[in-house]
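User: Structure tokens for both sequences below?

Assistant:
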Amino acid sequence: MNASEKAQGFEIATKIASTVHVFKTHFPDAKADLKPWRNDPDTLELVDPNSIDIGFHLPGWSPRFQSRSMLVQIRFHKDPVDETQRLIGVEVTGFNHQGQAWRLSTVENWQLEGSYQPATDIAEKFKCFCRQVFEVFNQNNSRFSL
């Protein structure tokens, strides 16, 4: 779900802002998009209500990134007892003019998959970013409502 819609309270808004800051620390040319999903019925059908989604766009297509835009999806599991959310993983997907170029998921094996993959140093920066997102959302063992 769009990060702009999830930023309801101070704690979650701060964590979203920290995530954007961490991404821009690694990739300063990227522009953040807190509303990567359109609000049409077809799109909303595909959106995971238990995720925070942030888009990042480069000034143009980059051969080192093998993409122009990246979608970061921070995935949560909702505890059925107390209704709080717990971070379970981060997915970063790179898009080029043909669609999805590559994907990195911490839910699976932390390996990049896809027909077009970023340079090794860029891939390592994405993995470092994902580790830092875990740090941001797991500070003080936090559980919160989204």
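Moving on to the next sequence.
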Amino acid sequence: MKRILLVEPSGGYIRLDRCMQSINSWGGAYRFPLNLARIAAHLSSIGYKLDFIDLQADKTSNLKEKVTQFKPDLCILSCGFPSMRIDSETARDIKQISNKIHVSTFGVAPTLLNDSFFNFDTWGFKIHFDSIVVGGEPALGYEELISNTEIKEKAIIKSSLKKVKAIKTQLARPLFNHSLYKSPFTGQNATYIEGTYGCPFRCNFCVVPVLYEGRFSRRTPQDIINEFKYVIENDNVSQITLWDEGTTFQKSFIRELCDGLIELRKSKDERFRNFVWTTRSTTALLDEEIVEKMSKSGLSGITLGIESFSDSVLEKIEKNISVDSNYEAIRLLKKYDIISIGHFILGQLQDTKQSVEYTIESAINSDLNFAQFYCAVPYPGTKLYDMASPLNLIRETNFTKYELSNPIMDTMNDLSYLDIGNYRKEALNLFWTSKRWAKIDELLLKRGLSNNICKDKLKQWSNSIDIQKQVIFKDSSL
């Protein structure tokens, strides 16, 4: 295998690590496929010929034409739970063009399902992939697959996390049309850069502890800054997302990174003076010194894993934060004019009617600028699945429905999955007010940016499970 084609299948889904959801969740903006770029960068560094096609962001793309012209030996496709039927059908289409091509996939779904991934009964349809790479470092897994001259049918290749390393995606970025990938907030060209790798925490609902086997590592701040410079100079982007599970895990790291970005913004080159960036954090790790420094470095927004405004629920899901830390993080971000993006998970096992309603009311009444309301999804292999399954609380077993807008399970406290779906719809409607849109406008304007959020697509991001609408809150003024 010397020629390798990377493929982002169609369908309108995000397939980046644990983010397996409709692109409407972010207003229809397509993300730079960082996972494929990592694989491409590593394989090209050891001498393989790479090409890439994006079948959903690039409306002019033609799979048959690309495969016929490039003549790949191996095709590597992104995949996810909700997009799996489309992903598998894309693998089938490739093999119909040439049955000599080996077609493989990687990521969360193959890793969590492992041996059962290929089973018809797992999905209810045929899986057309020849192999899967499981684990959190697919780039190294594909190096092993390619070097193996005797790949068996339905092969499972385990990527080695013992050799985990930061991969400089600069090597692969010329393969991508960067004008396809936009910021959901401004609509301007945007890209993703890897920061830290894995996560030191063990939240029981999360797939990350399984995917990365509990490992955590990070790139050097200078390495990240060098890649900021590269994408700004070469990829015509001025908005960058530092993609990791939490940039603020180590204060010495974030201080050094911000100091370097502050120096970069002092450049005589206007492109370096005007870039902005976003990232993720757990609320417990944000203090005033860090938030102030991040603001000075050009941070325009940060996503927060708030999950709940119930300390009891947070403790039970093994989330090492508190309601107080949630409020403090929101306060600090407001003080320094950084867009706060809260993520909430409704319908955890321990949730009650009162805890869900209180979380929604607290989110609505908070100073959060943006919120994502998810349903708890008991992905197979997670601790949440292991707890919910023996209690017979999982009501949806079709894995293609395992998308974060879909209610999947009942709680232990007499909340049905249908109740959770209705709560999520109500939360979405009540949170998005004209006052909130105006505040986002104001914050973006302070950084010389315009608001290009596609409100219609954002509010259309709803479940595909049939739920009868019910009135949840008696007081609709909340």
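User: Anything stand out in the second?

Assistant: The mean pLDDT is 92.
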